[in-house]
Design a protein that fits this description.
heterodimer, A: mainly alpha, two-stranded antiparallel ribbon, B: Rossmann fold, four-stranded antiparallel sheet, 12 strands
Chain lengths: 325, 243
């Protein structure tokens, strides 16, 4: 009971406990292999990229909208980057342009969703297919070629730093920025109000469409950035990059305590949520569990998190009724 | 003699062929508590939506404090001193009281182009003060509005309007779905507006409630004002006769 009350107020603490439990379990089950230098380094390659993807998505979810297209945007932006570089553009302008493409997709998602009053779930399902298709077409046309690692600033994205990589710094900086935006600024207050109750926010004069558009754009831009970090690390574009990663981002958000109904959530929880997912993925391999169980484990965790969320919502409603009588 | 706080003349509004407001004129003085009654579709909601900036009138004039205005949006209405409290959605249930009180009007300790860092200490302190000013006592400004009862929520909404020195409060069915005790509390809030020289426009289906807390009753039917009288000179039965 008390634990659930804590969960209601601080879901990220519960997520942290879950993370520690899983880490300890896998460390033991794998005879220490899980926490070996090489494995931790491996986890810190993929983790920051996916956590950045989940950051933007979570911000949008707090604003009360949804984006299924982030995995495809994560695939498309790096291909745009590689194509631009292939055309002779230096890295940084190409980098900016690729992010602009990401932001433009966010703008498109937002415009269609808000203009036609379509659930963003459906709009972005459309963009998921379209962006992926464009990525594959661009790739198979041969425009996007392997990056010349000498000419690419790996120091800015993927250079190893002890057991970490530079991408961990990106994650920390971006998580801090998104956290500040949501918790400390007036715009964060508008995001929460818009996600919590669009009508109330409108009645108080909040430009809810603008708020949602900005969140859609931040979400897609961060998805593009996640893809770019990955392509710099790997060195060559892959048209299937980011495929089904939107589902991991959703899972991280839900496990981290972001409410599906909008308005509620904490960025710290999301960063931990993605860590839990990566730990389970890697831990299962290290403990020699059949890797096919990975999706089962994630699915099970999501269901548990959603049930807990829903139960709390009902409970909160009951508290209200008790006071009213 | 001062100009009335709100003066509407000849307001007209059509919704795709339906004539929702027919030449409505209404004067409301400072500190007056006006009860606006009428059946569904009588035009009450249309009238207040025009005053709160949600819709614009197709014809007619609105003067606030003697000045001609066109109320462009909700924000503009609030800047003019007209604050509307809707029955359900005046508050965001998933946010704390302190954050709710300042939605859209956050005090900033640092800002650039209107965006910046909120002064949360000030928000907490001032929201506690604002709530205490309407004689409502809540345990913490960090409690979620979703945990409050319906009457407490209306209280916080009224406290918010008072805090921002609104000249007029428009309350849309504030007593719907409230228990008797809670209703009394809300009616008390409306009566207390007068002490601070704040105008109240109280929209209700319930004639009893209007007669308990207003100075004047205005009845609407079929898009027109059909009756307008001080409460002291009329009776519930008489008003009912016009609806």
């Amino acid at each position: 009971m008390r634990l659930l009350k804590i969960y209601m107020q601080r879901p990220e603490l519960v997520a942290l406990v879950v993370l520690i439990v899983f880490t300890t379990y896998f460390a033991v089950a794998s005879n220490g292999l899980f926490l070996s230098n090489a494995n931790v380094r491996g986890m810190f390659s993929l983790y920051p990229e996916l956590a950045i993807l989940a950051l933007g998505f979570s911000l949008l979810m707090v604003a009360g909208e949804f984006d299924l297209s982030i995995g495809s945007v994560m695939g498309l932006c790096p291909i745009v980057l590689c194509a631009m570089i292939n055309f002779g553009l230096p890295f940084w302008p190409a980098f900016i342009l690729a992010l602009v493409v990401g932001a433009a997709i966010g703008l498109f998602n937002s415009a269609v969703t808000l203009r036609f009053g379509i659930p963003s779930f459906i709009t972005t399902l459309g963009t998921l297919f379209m962006a992926r298709s464009v990525a594959v077409v661009l790739y198979s046309s041969g425009l996007a070629t392997t990056l010349d690692t000498a000419a690419v600033p790996t120091w800015a994205f993927s250079e190893p730093l002890g057991i970490f990589r530079v991408s961990a710094i990106w994650l920390i900086a971006l998580a801090l920025l998104v956290w500040l935006l949501l918790e400390k600024t007036n715009f964060g207050n508008w995001i929460r109000a818009t996600g919590g109750s669009v009508e109330a926010a409108k009645a108080m004069g909040i430009p809810t469409s603008l708020v949602k558009t900005v969140c859609f754009m931040i979400c897609s831009t961060l998805a593009g950035l996640a893809g770019i970090i990955q392509v710099v690390r790997i060195g060559s574009p892959i048209p299937s990059m980011g495929e089904s990663m939107e589902l991991q981002a959703i899972a991280a958000a839900v496990i981290g305590g972001i409410a599906l109904s909008g308005g509620v959530g904490n960025i710290v929880g999301v960063v931990i949520g993605m860590a839990i997912i990566r730990v389970i993925d890697s831990g299962m391999i290290m403990s020699r569990v059949d890797a096919s169980w990975f999706k089962f484990a994630i699915g099970f965790l999501i269901v548990c998190a959603v049930i807990a969320n829903h139960w709390l919502e009902r409970r909160a409603r009951n508290i209200k009724l008790e006071v009213a009588q | 003699m001062n100009a009335p706080l709100i003066e509407c003349t000849g307001l007209q509004k059509w919704y795709s062929g339906v004539h929702a407001l027919k030449n409505v004129s209404l004067r409301v003085e400072r500190g007056e508590a006006v009860g606006l009654v009428g059946d569904n579709g009588a035009g009450k909601t249309t009238l207040i939506k025009i005053l709160s900036g949600v819709h614009q009138a197709d014809a007619g004039k609105i003067r606030i404090d003697g000045k001609d205005v066109t109320i462009k949006n909700a924000r503009h209405a609030m800047e003019l001193g007209l604050e509307t409290i809707y029955q359900y959605n005046s508050m965001v249930p998933t946010m704390t009281i302190a954050r709710n009180v300042f939605i859209g009007r956050e005090p900033l300790s640092w800002s650039l182009f209107g965006f910046g860092v909120m002064d949360q200490k000030k928000m907490r302190a001032e929201s506690v003060q604002a709530i205490a000013d309407v004689d409502l006592h809540l345990r913490s400004p960090d409690a979620l509005v979703g945990e409050l009862s319906g009457g407490q929520r209306q209280g916080v909404a009224i406290a918010r309007a008072m805090h921002f020195k609104s000249k007029a409060l428009i309350l849309d069915e504030p007593t719907n779905h409230l228990s008797v005790k809670e209703t009394d509390k809300v009616l008390g809030f409306v009566r207390d507006l007068k002490k601070q020289n704040v105008t109240g426009i109280f929209i209700s289906h319930n004639m009893q409630h209007v007669f308990q807390c207003c100075d004047r009753v205005v009845a609407m039917a079929r898009g027109e004002i059909v009756f307008d009288s001080p409460i002291s000179k009329t009776s519930i039965d008489e008003v009912h006769g016009y609806l």
